[in-house]
Amino acid sequence: MTILIEGNLTSDPELRVTKTGKKVTVITVAENHRFFDAKTGQWRDSEPVFMRCNVWDRMAEHAVESLRRGMGVIVTGQLQQNRVTNADGETRTFTDVRVSNIAPSLKYARAVVTKVAYNVVDAREGDAGEPVEPDQARTQEPARSGSVPF
């Protein structure tokens, strides 16, 4: 199931590397809504919802370089349910999001986007090679069908 979350980062993203060498950053997005309470005639904040999100590979690197605590973000991804058994044999279930895209929210901020060129395309992994300066790139990522290159 794909979902969209709009909220604020609760901490700075930190890059980690798994035992298998995959890069990941785990972020938490806090989302709450402000609404007008007609009974009291005042604006109120709803209870916040905190969503744990896993950002993988190159996007994890970009998130660490670009995003900071308190920034508004828009996240799309797939809900995942995980079960963990602790040392006492108790099984706990939690839900998180495997991020497919993340961006700063422009509702109350401005952002500068810097496109990164990559030297080698590896379609099997869905990941391009090492970043290079745009004028040094020998190949570029193939355009996705139906997309407009920019």
From TrEMBL:
SUPFAM superfamilies on file: Nucleic acid-binding proteins
GO molecular function: single-stranded DNA binding
Residues covered by region (Disordered): 125-150
Subunit structure of this chain's protein: Homotetramer.
InterPro entries listed in its UniProt record: NA-bd_OB-fold, Primosome_PriB/ssb, ssDNA-bd
Stored PANTHER family: SINGLE-STRANDED DNA-BINDING PROTEIN
Protein name (Swiss-Prot/TrEMBL): Single-stranded DNA-binding protein
One Gene Ontology CC term in the entry: nucleoid
Top-level taxon of the source organism: Bacteria
The organism of origin for this protein: Nocardia macrotermitis
GO terms classed as biological process: DNA replication
Keyword line: DNA-binding
